[in-house]
Design brief:
227 residues, microtubule, Papain-like_cys_pep_sf, cysteine-type deubiquitinase activity, CYLD hydrolase, three-stranded antiparallel sheet, Peptidase_C19_UCH, mainly alpha, two-stranded parallel ribbon
Length: 227
């Protein structure tokens, strides 16, 4: 355990600490969905560090300390987290949640995020979405759903998000403080994409509801939008 706090890894430090054998979060007993989510959320960004320190109204301080001291700090300090540390967290999630299989079964990352952010830490939803002018939906992450696109062989994240929002007639009600995106799922038998290129920046201009944008024909402020 590492009682001190460590900042997220950046640039050369990230390469030096995270590259090589025995790096990352050790997998054990179908933990891959949680390992990947925790690594993405904390290794190289501080956007969600409030989860580690802030005393939220419903916050379970024991789960918060396990997350901070046994997983995030060791990951940022040495680049490695033992499987037993993640199992400790999974045992607590099983105890606090309504599901008894968090310690042995693979889950959807969204189920894990909803449990730890909403039920255990009491964090306000990160995203506000609206579909086709209907009522706003609050959520913690966005999972990309889309049909197979023949022209997208090796897509980047920007393309996938735009295609998914367009096909679902979705808009972001406001600019999110944190935009957690789950890539298209696939099983052992079928892979929608062999590779997905990470977009280091995401342009959400066209995804925002009622956001002023310029007309592609004349350059003035647009009054109509064509999908």
């Amino acid at each position: 355990q590492t009682p001190d706090s460590f900042p997220p890894l950046r640039n050369e430090a990230a390469v030096r600490v995270l590259r090589g054998r025995m790096k990352g979060i050790q997998g054990h007993c179908n933990s891959c969905y949680m390992d990947a989510a925790l690594f993405s959320l904390f290794s190289c960004t501080s956007v969600l560090d409030s989860m580690l320190f802030k005393p939220f109204p419903l916050c379970d301080r024991n789960v918060q300390s396990i997350l901070r001291d046994e997983i995030v700090n060791p990951l940022r300090k040495t680049g490695f987290v033992r499987a037993r540390s993640v199992m400790h967290l999974r045992e607590q999630l099983t105890e606090k949640g309504q599901c008894s299989s968090f310690t042995n079964a693979e889950k959807d990352p969204e189920e894990f995020l909803n449990l730890i952010m909403h039920q255990i830490l009491g964090i306000e939803p990160l995203l506000k979405l609206q579909s086709g002018g209907q009522k706003e939906q609050d959520c913690y992450c966005y999972q990309i759903f889309m049909d197979k696109q023949e022209d997208l062989v090796v897509p980047d994240v920007q393309q996938l998000v735009e295609h998914s929002f367009l096909s679902s007639d979705l808009k972001l009600v406001e600019i999110p403080s944190c935009f957690i995106i789950q890539m298209p799922r696939f099983g052992k038998e079928y892979k929608m994409f062999s590779k997905i290129i990470p977009s280091l920046e995401l342009d959400i201009t066209d995804l925002l509801l009622d956001s002023p944008r310029e007309c592609c024909m004349c350059g003035d402020v647009a009054t109509l939008e064509c999908s």
